[in-house]
Fold this sequence. Notes:
This is Zn-ribbon domain-containing OB-fold protein. By secondary structure, the chain is mainly beta.
Amino acid sequence: MEDLRKAAETNIKEYGFPVAIDEKSGALQWVDMRELHLKYIISIENIQEFFEGLRDGKLLATKCKKCGELFFPPQKDCPTCMDSDMEWFELKKEGVLETLTVIFVRPPSFSAYEPYTVAIAKLDDGVRITAWLRGDPQKVRPGQRVKIEIAKRKEGYLMYEIVPVEG
């Protein structure tokens, strides 16, 4: 990365833009010279029950009482019928793996992690869930049965993961 930065700095003087040539493809690429440090606070007041459920080993979604639409992650309001009368619904935590991808080029906020796998599973309840996949991504295939488990992340907080079902 430092080589790219140096090349980009040199090319700003020569071409007027922070560009560098990609070593693998030979393609010209833009190198952003700004550093991005991001911290944020998001209110969870209206979906606090979701986090309390995780603490109790449950995976909760919301369901619109008016139209019956099920939402994961949980929603305070139904974007389908614009109603706010929602109820909490416990998901069964089992489903089928739809797709996955291994993240080798990690954003700075995940640089402490080795390459990791993000997967999408369709739960038996009908909702799709995106989460980290636990285990070797080369040993799973779309269509395989999976389950959702609540686990502690490296940072110390609880989160849900997709786990292949043995068998």
